[in-house]
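User: Sequence recovery, please. Input:
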């Protein structure tokens, strides 16, 4: 599925950060997106329903979101929608999950104080070992995709943009961020 959605809502649970077996950060939290209207006659806001979404973020986005978000914050989340069927103790239903591409505070509902985080630097390649030496382990760069990820992306018609680590569709022109190295 490749349904990209954007939702507005409130962080419903404090974000929880974990680490994958490969060492990448993963962050999970829930967002409540409510709708309603102002009833002039009653002089009150009438809520018409709330949708709950499980949001997952990876790597650098996970780290930045963990440092920035708290339960109750007004947010905007853009990412891939995944509808999953579940069963538990004789009950069943569907969950709406979003694998986030971008997360931010909803500035229509409050203010925020942005601070750019530095991109991780790539370590220089180690010299080839001589016959009696062992090669040192290369440091893990959580932004750099491993070979399996690159192979999966290539098979799906995607490529990694040189110098950014971002993913684009084959043939897609990508505008470089003028402030990326600022």
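Assistant: Recovered sequence (182 residues):
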């Amino acid at each position: 599925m490749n349904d990209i959605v954007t939702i507005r809502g409130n962080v419903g649970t404090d974000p929880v950060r974990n680490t994958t077996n490969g060492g990448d950060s993963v962050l999970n939290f829930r967002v409540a997106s409510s709708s309603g209207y102002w009833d002039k006659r009653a002089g009150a806001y009438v809520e018409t329903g709330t949708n709950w979404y499980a949001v997952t973020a990876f790597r650098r986005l996970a780290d930045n979101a963990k440092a920035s978000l708290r339960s109750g914050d007004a947010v905007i989340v853009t990412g891939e929608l995944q509808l999953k069927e579940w069963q538990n103790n004789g009950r069943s239903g569907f969950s709406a999950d979003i694998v986030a591409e971008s997360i931010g505070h909803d500035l229509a509902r409050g203010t925020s104080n942005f601070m750019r985080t530095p991109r991780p630097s790539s370590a220089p390649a180690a010299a080839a070992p001589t016959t009696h030496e062992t090669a040192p382990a290369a440091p893990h760069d959580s932004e750099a995709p491993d070979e399996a990820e690159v192979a999966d992306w290539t098979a799906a018609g995607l490529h990694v943009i040189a110098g950014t680590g971002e993913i684009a569709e084959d043939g897609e022109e990508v505008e470089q961020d003028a402030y990326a190295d600022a």
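The first helix runs from residue 59 to 68.
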